[in-house]
Design a protein that fits this description.
β12 (253-261), α9 and β13 form a beta-alpha-beta unit. This protein has helices spanning 39-46, 94-97, 127-130, 140-160, 176-187, 199-207, 221-228, 243-251, 276-281, 297-305, 324-329, and strands at residues 2-5, 14-17, 28-36, 61-69, 81-83, 121-124, 132-133, 168-172, 191-196, 212-215, 233-238, 253-261, 285-288, 315-320, 339-344. The longest helix is centred in the middle third of the chain and has 21 residues, at 140-160. The strands form 3 sheets. Strands 3, 4, 5, 6, 7, 14 and 15 form a 7-stranded mixed sheet that branches. α4 packs across α5 (176-187). By secondary structure, the protein is an alpha/beta fold. The N and C termini lie close together (10 Å). The chain folds into 2 domains: 2-148 and 292-344, Medium-chain alcohol dehydrogenases, catalytic domain (Quinone Oxidoreductase, Chain A, domain 1), CATH 3.90.180; 151-288, NAD(P)-binding Rossmann-like Domain (Rossmann fold, 3-Layer(aba) Sandwich).
Length: 345
């Protein structure tokens, strides 16, 4: 099969012919019909993820059809249309038994712990625990755009932050994660303030439901959010993963506000400054959000079916697999709006 492969961190990946994968006893092989490009893939290529063993095929936001099934798999058949969370649970550790597959002690992550979906085929372990069936009316590109960004944002807004109608939600960073969070928080009835450094992305955020925007290149973010919300956000999300957005997200909260860290904090950004005096004095809550369990997809899919969520609006560029190596290396530039998806192999 054709795949994007890199043999050294920070060196240009290339298109290679590599052996087709085979399913593990509890896994499947999926023919990839579409796969999203995510900044997490860029972090992996940079060498920020200790799980990656070289040589490596990246990619974790995928949708496709089951091509082969392991002998212990009971719920899936060849031809089934599927997607998968970017964090897969083993199904039998303490965290999985408590329903928290997203922090599984032996988690499977395509594109990180195993070869990923920047390829014609990808092997997925623990299939009965992790695969998600796609409705026939949901096209593969839209399904791939759900990827890690939309589902991670869904869990961050709905399950972790527990956003309520009428609350003020500040979203720092209007990339794929941030735009997803804006759409979901708006659907939950919240008032969203979008923060970014470019007017193009802020304009797109308004199209998706943000009622106010703050340009961090021109304004004091914390002061602006507190003024707009008349005291601070009830919920604030760092959707980018940078010391400044993390600090601002916590600092712009009102008393007893909730900060959710979704953007990855890796490498030099792993230990950001935190206004801990405010965390204590104002009883702020700080929580992380790491993917979403497969069984929680139904609530999100129901909102897609009724039209309350329209992730297809987030799809930006559609590119070929041959274009993926350059696109991957340029993920740190934050160019354009929306999510890029590979749909031609």
């Amino acid at each position: 099969m054709k795949a994007v492969l890199f043999e050294h961190f920070r060196e240009a990946p290339s298109i290679r012919n590599v052996p087709d994968p085979k399913p593990s006893t509890d896994g499947v092989v999926v023919k990839v019909e579409a796969t999203g490009l995510c900044r997490s893939d860029w972090h992996g290529w940079m060498g920020h993820d200790a799980d990656i063993v070289l040589p490596h095929v990246p990619g974790h936001e995928l949708a496709g059809t089951v091509q082969a099934v392991g002998r212990q798999v009971t719920q899936w058949r060849v031809g089934d249309r599927v997607t998968v969370p970017f964090v897969g649970g083993c199904g039998h550790c303490h965290e999985c038994n408590s329903g928290n597959h997203q922090v599984c002690e032996q988690q499977f992550q395509p594109g990180f712990t195993a070869w990923g979906s920047f390829a014609e085929y990808v092997a997925i372990d623990y299939a009965d625990t992790n695969l998600v069936r796609l409705p026939e009316e949901l096209d593969f590109v839209t399904a791939a755009s759900l990827g890690c960004r939309f589902v991670t944002s869904f869990r961050a807004i709905v399950d972790q932050a527990k956003v309520l109608p009428g609350e003020w939600v500040a979203v720092h960073g209007c990339g794929g994660v941030g735009l997803s969070a804006i759409m979901i928080a708006t659907a939950m009835g919240a008032n969203v303030v979008a923060i970014d450094l470019t007017e193009e992305k802020l304009a797109f955020a308004r199209e998706l439901g943000a009622v106010a925007t703050v340009n961090g290149a021109e304004q004091d973010v914390v002061a602006a959010v507190k003024e707009i919300t008349k005291g601070g956000a009830h919920v604030s999300v760092d959707a980018l993963g940078h010391p400044s957005t993390c600090f601002n997200s916590i600092a712009n909260l009102r008393r007893r506000g909730r900060h959710v860290q979704v953007g990855l904090m890796l490498g030099d950004h792993a230990t950001p400054q935190v206004p801990m005096d405010k965390v204590i004095a104002h009883e702020l809550q700080i929580v992380g959000s790491h993917g979403m369990q497969a069984f929680r997809y139904k609530a999100m899919m129901d909102m897609l079916e009724t039209g309350k969520l329209k992730p297809q609006k987030l799809v930006g560029k559609r590119i070929s697999l041959a274009e993926a190596p350059v696109a991957l290396m340029q993920m740190d530039r934050f160019d354009g709006t929306g999510i890029s998806v590979v749909d031609r192999f």
